[in-house]
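Researcher: Let's do a round of design. I'm pasting the structure tokens now; please hold your answer until I've finished.
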């Protein structure tokens, strides 16, 4: 007599999705997350991670829709608000990014996500000195997510290059700003997810 197959529950599938993502298996992770949402359609964290993975593979419109759904279901997912704003910035939608980032104001002016979003808004307005100052403050305050710090350092480097060009100084080689779907984006999004997950316990 063979044992009947026991279906995995949503929590097990979520952990399998995280494991698959850490193993660089996005297809398997996406499959697990879609199954999670079949079982728990109002699972904001599953929408958040699914959006992260779709951003990673370049499906930005789908990622925006899923991140939007995530913050609708779980308004306290501060990193989802931040990543949604980054997706809008990457798509050239500055007004939408500013609106997506508005809930981060409640975190306070010393929170790294607040400082990062303010720095990014300074950048798109060509306010390079203010951008650099806010990003550096955010990096100093952010002790939980070094991958995000590395991305913000690249953005600050680009702002410094633009500032030198404006001042007529010799240009130095500066890296391109990182997008939410850059090579390290998966790790940034997952560690950001971990921050919110820790804060809910």
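Researcher: That's everything. Go ahead.
Model: Designed sequence:
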């Amino acid at each position: 007599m063979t044992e009947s197959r026991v279906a995995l529950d949503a929590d097990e599938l979520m952990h399998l999705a995280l494991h698959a993502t850490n193993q660089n298996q996005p297809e398997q992770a996406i499959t697990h997350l879609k199954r999670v949402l079949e079982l728990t359609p109002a699972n904001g964290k599953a929408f958040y991670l699914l959006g992260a993975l779709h951003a990673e593979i370049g499906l930005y419109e789908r990622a925006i829709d899923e991140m939007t759904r995530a913050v609708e279901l779980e308004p306290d997912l501060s990193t989802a608000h931040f990543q949604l704003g980054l997706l809008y910035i990457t798509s050239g939608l500055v007004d939408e990014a500013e609106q997506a980032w508005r809930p981060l104001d409640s975190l306070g002016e010393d929170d790294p996500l607040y400082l990062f979003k303010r720095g990014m808004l300074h950048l798109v307005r060509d306010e390079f000195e203010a951008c650099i100052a806010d990003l550096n403050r955010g990096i100093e305050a952010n002790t939980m997510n070094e991958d995000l710090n590395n991305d913000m350092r690249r953005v600050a480097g680009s702002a410094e290059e633009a500032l030198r060009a404006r001042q007529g100084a010799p240009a130095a080689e500066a890296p391109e700003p990182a997008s939410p779907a850059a090579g390290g984006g998966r790790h940034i999004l997952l560690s950001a997810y971990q921050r919110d997950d820790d804060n809910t316990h």
